Every structure is written in C-alpha cells, then in structure tokens.
Amino acid sequence: MAGRNNSTLLCVSLVAKTVEEMLIDMGRAKAAGADVVEIRLDNLAAFSPRQDLERLLRDRPLPALVTYRPKWEGGEYEGDDVKRLDALRLAMEMGADYVDVELKVAPEFANSIAGEKPEKFKLIVSSHNYESTPSMEVLGDLVASIQVAGADIVKIVTTAVNITDVARMFQVMVHCQVSC
Ligand SMILES: O=C1C[C@@](O)(C(=O)O)C[C@@H](O)[C@@H]1O
Fold first, then answer.
1. Using CA atoms, how far apart are residues 21 and 135, in angstroms rounded to an integer?
2. 14, 128, 156, best to mutate for ligand 1 pocket (most atoms within 8 Å of CB)
3. Which of 124, 150, 6 is nearest to 67 (CA)?
4. pLDDT class for 174, splitting at 50, 70, 90?
5. Does domain 11-127 have CATH number 2.30.30.140?
6. 165, 169, 111: which is closest to 142 by C-alpha?
7. Whole-number pLDDT of residue 124
8. Which Pfam families match (predicted)?
9. Domain ranges of the chain
10. Cα atoms in the Cβ-side hemisphere of radius 13 Å centred on 32
11. What percentage of the chain carries pLDDT values higher than 70?
C-alpha cells in the first residue's frame, strides 16, 4: 500500500473471530513492525457496528483500514449490501483512516460520502481476481474504472500463475497514481 508521501506502508490483515482477539492482534502487528492494520469485519463471528467499531478504533495503536468483504468478492459477509455499506460509512465517521470498498459498489459508496470525507480519510477501491492476472490492456481499463469510481487509492489483487504476471503488476502500478 502506498503512503501519503509515496513510501510503501506495510499493512497487516486482522482476521480474528472476536473483537478481543483483534485488539490483541493489533498490538502484535505493531510490535512486529506494521504501519497499518486491516480490520476484516467480515471475519468477526458476531458484529455490532457502533459498539464494535468504537472499541476497535478508539485505542488503536496504528492507522486502521476497515474492510467488510462480501462473499461475492471472496470475503465472509453474506448479508445485504445496505447494512454492509452503512457499517463502512460508520467506520469512516468514527475515524477509520481508510475504508476498502469493491469496485462494483464503489460509485454508489463514493457518492454517499461525497462532501463528508474527513480530511485525512482515504477511500480504497479494490478489485479481486482469484484465478489469474489479466492482460496489460484489461488491467489498464481496470485502473481507469477504479479511478473513475472515486478511489483515493487503487487496489488490484490478482493471482500470479506465471512469473511474467508479476512484471505486469509492477508495470500497472505506474498508472495507479491518484492525485490527492
Ligand atoms: O483484498 C484483500 C486481499 C486479500 O483478500 C487476499 O486474499 O490477498 C486479503 C485481504 O485482507 C485484503 O482485503
């Protein structure tokens, strides 16, 4: 993940099943040298948005990225998108440093927070391909769609099946810059 001054940030994903365990893992991530933690809300066995986000964000030792990944994009959340996006908006309002939303719902989400984004908040728009790494042309179109959807940070996850796939991902990163 790229930092505000274009330096690389190390982000550790927290995938514990309870808030208590996630809080412990945050401390571990910091001790291990992480710069950012990703709170994967979809991994929590039970989740009460206001109460749990308050606990997870209040005393966080590191900047937090909040993700609530639906099944249809490889996550664990099976409920409806209205509740999911409401929780992500709430995370932003409660001080999350970053929120990650999937490209498919990004335009709707970005519109819903337009004019309300806290100054330092960044919206990550993500796309996942768990089978392959597309051609440079397809990746280029994907970057453009993500930028148009309102991303502050472009995130593309693909699956490398060949060593040349990695080279393409480095190439595409040059085009991922979004003016801040
Ligand atoms: O988007 C991603 C990618 C990921 O799902 C992976 O499988 O690498 C891991 C997630 O925590 C993250 O939000």
1. 40
2. 128
3. 124
4. confident
5. no
6. 169
7. 98
8. DHquinase_I (PF01487)
9. 11-127
10. 13
11. 96
The answer on pLDDT for 163 being more than 50 is: yes
Averaged pLDDT for residues 111-126: 97
* Ligand 1 neighbourhood includes 67 CB (under 6 angstroms): yes
Q: Return the HEC string of 2-25.
A: ECCCCCECCEEEECCCCHHHHHHH
Q: What is the pLDDT of residue 180?
A: 44
Give the Cα separation of 38 and 21 in Å (integer): 14
**155 flagged as catalytic:** yes
Å from CA of 111 to ligand 1 middle: 24
| CA nearest to 67, candidates 47, 38, 44, 92 | 38
Residue 16 alpha carbon to ligand 1 centre in Å: 14
Residues in contact with 148: Cβ distance below 8 Å, sequence separation at least 6, in sequence order: none
- 128 classed as catalytic: yes
Residue 22 near residue 30 (C-beta atoms within 8 A):
no
Asked whether the ipTM of the predicted complex exceeds the cut of 0.95, the reply is no
How many angstroms does the Cα of residue 45 sit away from the middle of ligand 1? 18
10 Å CB burial of residue 94 (0-12, 13-18, 19+) is: middle
